[in-house]
Amino acid sequence: MVTGKFFREVELTEQKSVTDGVVFPAVLSPTTAISNIGAFEEAIKAEKPWLESVLKKSSVILFRGFPVSSPCDFNTVVEAFGYPEAPNVGGRAPRVKVVGRVYTANESPMHKRIPFHHEMSYVPNFPSKLFFFCEEEPGEGGETPIVLSDSIYVKVKEKHPQFVMKLEKHGLKTTIIAGDEDDLSAVANSSWKSTYMTNDKKVVEERAAKLGTKLEWMGNVVKMITGPMPAIKFDKERQVKTWFNNLTSPVNGDDKTFDNVTCIQLGNGELVPNDAMEDCMRFLEEESVAIPWKNGDVMFIDNLMVLHGRRPLLIPPRRILASLCK
Questions:
Q1: H or E element: which one contains 234?
Q2: Helix or strand holding residue 294 (H, E)
Q3: Using an 8 Å Cβ cutoff, are 51 and 150 in contact?
Q4: Binning pLDDT at 50, 70 and 90, where does residue 133 land?
Q5: What b/e readout covers 258-281, taking b as 16+ CB neighbours within 10 angstroms?
Q6: Is the Cβ–Cβ distance between 18 and 24 less than 8 Å?
Q7: Count of alpha carbons within 13 angstroms of residue 183, beta-carbon side
Q8: Dihedral through CA 113, CA 152, CA 293, CA 319, nearest 10?
Q9: Domain-by-domain residue ranges, the chain?
Q10: How far apart are CA 316 and CA 313, in angstroms?
Q11: Among 53, 61, 122, 280, which has the minimal tally of Cβ within 10 Å of its Cβ?
């Protein structure tokens, strides 16, 4: 248990013990020295190296009980860390800007599950860190489950060594069909206008090219072909391989069928074996941690090490905001 001038480490029943006594995620609460958002901001600046060491060890920090009550407060927290903002260009999650560097997490229907994924793993300039903020805690359900990506790599490799060997060799290719209007009835069906943050097709072409994405236009509908992209990353700091891909993202959480606009296949054109996909989904659920949101919670995630998702909301309301960092 760590206690300092500003932060004290607390335990929650949902946490999971991992290697060498490390708990996942780390949960920090304030000491009496933090009484307002300004004090929290100064504490982050003063203790940033220590907070980063906690993040390196546990991969996720949940800040609970801090004086964060509004999107502006959340923006203050994000900016206190000093990381550059990551662009959302190429992202498939519909988002709306709230204030500063703060956006809605996802505009898709709350009753739908969002599969586990690394944020924007399908583009070269993915964010390295994520922040989530609970402005309105759910009545029931709506958790943001998290899972250590290196553990998923180990489990899938043990069960499907030949598939993982191909995955490491060839990577993944993603094909997405997008129209010119967001489909808010689906989990990740942004329009090409939202994906590339412009209405100008020429600008879309330029931005897609920078991301290594090939476009095939069919009137106002476009097929976006990205990759092959590496599906496995090596974390040099921790010396581990991570399951850095969105392999299960095309799966609809309600009926576990592929949506009709997304296709993910190996970089050599082979389809992903069904049994490997099913086992991967099972491992993700088994290894995940889901802590029910409380008003004012801020979750700080290492996107290189952790996959996250969303469980269906059973009883409203729920309002979770997000900020992406390089």
A1: strand 233-235
A2: none
A3: no
A4: very high
A5: ebebbbbbbbeeeebeeebbebbb
A6: yes
A7: 14
A8: -40
A9: 7-144+291-325, 149-285
A10: 7
A11: 53
- Report which DSSP code applies to 322: E
- Gap between the Cα atoms of 209 and 92, Å rounded: 16
Q: How far apart are alpha carbons 237 and 60 in whole angstroms? A: 15
In this structure, the strands spanning 102-104 and 97-99 are antiparallel
Helices 149-159 and 274-287 meet at what angle, rounded to 10? 140
Residues 211 and 226: their CA atoms lie apart, in Å, by 8
Measure the CA angle with vertex 247, ends 318 and 96; round to 5°.
Answer: 35
Of 24-38, 110-124, 162-176, 256-270, the one with minimum mean pLDDT is: 256-270
Average pLDDT on 114-138 reads: 95
Task: Pick the closest to residue 224 from 106, 123, 127 (CA basis).
Answer: 123
CATH code for the part of the protein at 7-144+291-325: 3.60.130.10
Q: Do the Cβ atoms of 321 and 104 come closer than 8 Å?
A: yes
Would the CATH topology of 7-144+291-325 be identical to that of 149-285?
yes
Query: DSSP labels for 105-153?
Result: S--S-TTSPEEEE-TTTTSTT--SEEEEEEEE--SEE----EEEHHHHH
Inter-residue contact 4 to 31 (CB < 8 Å): yes
Q: What is the pLDDT of residues 188-206, one digit of tens each?
A: 678 999 899 999 999 999 9
Cα separation of the two ends of the chain: 30
Distance CA 26, CA 131 (A): 14
CA distance 89 to 107: 16
CATH topology of domain 149-285: Double-stranded beta-helix (3.60.130)
Sheet holding 172-178, edge to edge: 213-218, 221-229, 172-178, 262-266
Question: Distance (Å, rounded) from C-alpha 143 to C-alpha 312?
Answer: 8
Three-state secondary-structure class, residue 246: coil
Say if residues 82 and 123 touch (Cβ distance below 8 Å). no
Interhelix angle 149-159/161-170, rounded to 10 degrees, is 120
